[in-house]
Amino acid sequence: MDHLDKLAETQLYSLRTLKTPGVGRTVAKVLMVIVLLFILFLFLPWQQNIRGQGKLTALNPMNRPQKVETAIAGRIEKWHVIEGQFVNAGDTIMTISEIKDKFFDPDIIPRMQEQLTAKKNAADAKESKVDALNRQIVALQNALTAKMAQGKNKLRQAGLKLEADSLAYIAEQVNNDNSESIFERNKNRYEAGNITLTKYQEIETKLQESAAKVLKAENEWLQRKADLANANLELASIDADYTDKISKARSDLNGTIASLNETQAEIAKMENEITNVLVRQSQYQIIAPQSGFLVQAVKAGLGETIKEGEAVATILPKSDDVAVEMYVKPMDVPLLKAGRKVRIEFDGWPALQFSGWPNASIGTFGGEVAIIDRVQSTNGSFRILVKPDPEDDDWPALLRLGSGAKGWVMLSDVPIWYEIWRNMNGFPPTIYDEIEGLEKTEKK
User: pTM for the whole thing?
Assistant: First the structure.
């Protein structure tokens, strides 16, 4: 029976096909080991990070490459430095010449000074005229006061004379009435024969003399009334005459003051123009604003014209101040804060980066977030500035500003399976553990 079982297993084809091959068992064991290792791998720790790209720059804006611009338009006459040369602050980089015909005159400053001197002399003359007009107005006012006093005295005298002549006229009228009364009485007596003809004629003569005196007194009284009216008219004429003279003098004074103010404004304008020309002439020498290397000449040819505010060269300040200007997605900005650690890989520098295992990375350098922009950049991302980590290795000295760089801002540690699941669902990195820790610290 045993012989038949052995025969069946070795010689029968159907039994041989049902038996599992040895290679299959080996492959199955290997796959099981791989699956087990993969499952274990999923539970390994992975440090979440935010990726970004950028370039090398300087943390301080003063240490970044800056363009040297000309303040005026001109023509290049001479270069005093060459590209790559180190220049100190205040060194002359380039000499330019004038291209505006307004400033072609080589004696423009002396001529403008002459014009300014003439204007100042005119201003002095007008100031003298102002003083003279002020004195004239004071003199006219004093003369008006004196003339008015004189006229008032004359008016008062005319009033007193009128009053005296009026009384004299009244007295003569009374005398005349008395003479008429005496004449009438003596006329009756003469007709009655009580007085002589001679006596009658004598009384008649006195009556005629009294009537003449009345006429004379009336005439003098009327003359005094005319004198009083003339005195009033003369007083008003004095006031009108001197008021007109004073008004004219004040008008001349105001006109002179206005002209003086215009002249002084022209003087200030000419002084400003002279200063502008002097400053413009000093701009013929383009000066280095700070020490550094001349790395690029934008305008090179002699005789080439440049416009106002146009860059002629670029200066790279000599400084050890370096930082990485890196751009991140807007959704990652809330996860960032100053002081977060960053791993950086520089272009041209050999590196092997494991973003989730920074300790296993080779050729990368440490940094920390220094600045996070509060506004979005033109490319739709947010800019952050990363400075060297003082607790890590120094950055390579051969790095140049503008070199490309990649960075990973390090966040929380999570299992690999969680990181795979988060990326598959498009969720942001988690920092809840860190937030809870910060809240506990603040409460303490």
Answer: 0.55
